[in-house]
Design brief:
The structure is a homodimer.
Chain A lengths: L2 H13 L2 H10 L5 E2 H8 L3 H13 L3 E6 L2 E6 L2 H15 L11 H7 L1 E3 L2 E3 H13 L3 E3 L4 E3 L1 H10 L3 H5 L7 E4 L6 E4 H13 L3 E3 L6 E3 L1 H11 L4
Antiparallel strand pairs in A: 1-3, 2-3, 4-5, 6-7, 8-9, 10-11
The structure holds a DNA duplex.
Chain lengths: ~230, ~230
DNA sequence: CTGATATTACGGTCGTGACCGAAGTATTCG
DNA sequence: CGAATACTTCGGTCACGACCGTAATATCAG
């Protein structure tokens, strides 16, 4: 009908191919990945993957940086990441239909990145802990870091004040598609995740969005957030 | 890769067909529409439209209510509506590419519904007016009705207190794809739009999401919000 | 009941796009 | 320089799905 509708169909069609969905999902891990790594994620041949990457880039869903003989691809904008989260959210509250619970998904369900913050059981648990301690107030519509929360993050080694001035949404709930409950997103979620990675509490798994909790992480998360994992 | 990714591709593929995108876009008008009305929106034959409707319903993106010899279709859940808005938002800040500004879109650009609230020039102007008068505070991440705002809505004949207890997000910004600026969404946006329709200030156009500003509306919007339209 | 409208089901055509093999460009390394 | 790696372009095959014509079902009006 209108010009916007056809653009909407174009964008959706880009996401609507399984191989491209795999690529986008892999990039939702938050890291820029090379074409080669995305070949593994896509599950099709390098030639085909290359074509898909060209289409996604042409549609401005992903961006490409050439670096030597590698090409690094990433989600183009936070807006695109939010759109993909929105689709995930719809998928999440869809009926369980037939569910063959793959074991591959097991690690994902436990802990994974959601673009740039932590999701899965761990993400939800972290969020719950912050709320229970009065550091965070989350509603359906948004979230807020309390004064005690600001102090906590300071102690934890995160510069929230700097993060507050970024362009992105500062603090918001993000629906977890495995737990079906919200976890912490936005800039706050991102810096929290980054800090956990910096501390080597969490570790990215190769070619996956899944996160591994290190022994140090197990201890730190227990001491700092009271999580028994 | 994972089961969620393939579901994401399935959902996106549903939206990715032009005819189905037209249907969804029409339903984003917020009204339940009959299959016949959606035939016009889709731009394909009744048989084909029927097939599309079945697929969308099967994918839980739309819901169907039989009523006599009509079947009324509507967007299945607010979550689905938010997902579609998310896609629209990405389309909105994409490069203008080639833009053949259709005149059909003109009315849409001026005023239209966005699922259940007002968008377009009018939607943004209303939102700006509420902010300028200190009735509303909108940030990128959320929004809040001030005390003066609550009083204003009370005077305007809207029961905000009742609306506050609904399941839906209460107050939030929604990126306008024509104006490229946020307008008021959430429950507050919905009740505001409903009140304007009840007052006959706005009128839905047949088979379109576009809204017509009535003479009474012109006057009322000027007196109440200081809008010169 | 008959005729009209609304909607879905079936069957067959056709085009688009996903796919891979082979070959081509670019970059690094020895 | 030549070999190896990283990635893309080209060309051709094939299948899925969008489409419509025809026909069936359901509801309503007279």
């Amino acid at each position: 009908m209108t010009t916007a509708d056809v653009r909407m169909a174009e964008v959706a069609a880009l996401i609507g191919d399984p191989a491209r969905a795999n690529i986008l999902s892999a990039l939702m891990g938050g890291q820029a990945l090379t074409a080669g790594e995305l070949v593994r994620a896509a599950g099709v041949s390098p030639q085909t993957t290359s074509g898909h990457l060209a289409k996604l880039a042409d549609g401005r869903l992903i961006a490409c940086i050439k670096q030597g003989r590698h090409r690094y691809y990433r989600i183009a904008t936070p807006r695109v990441a939010e759109m993909l989260e929105g689709i995930m959210a719809v998928v999440a509250d869809a009926p369980p239909r037939h569910r063959p619970p793959s074991k591959l998904d097991e690690a994902m369900r436990n802990a994974r990145t959601c673009y740039d913050h932590v999701a899965g059981k761990l993400g939800v648990a972290l969020t719950d802990a912050l709320c229970a301690r009065g550091h965070l107030v989350l509603t359906r519509e948004g979230g807020e870091i309390t004064d005690s929360g600001a102090a906590f993050f300071e102690r934890f080694g995160v510069d929230l004040a700097a993060a507050r001035h970024r362009r992105r949404i500062f603090c918001r709930p993000c629906l977890d598609w495995t737990e079906r409950r919200p976890h912490l997103g936005g800039t706050v979620g991102a810096v929290l995740a980054q800090r956990c990675l910096d501390l080597k509490w969490l570790q990215r798994m190769r070619d996956s969005r899944a996160l591994l909790i290190t022994p140090a992480g197990r201890q730190g998360l227990s001491e700092t957030f009271g999580l028994s994992l």
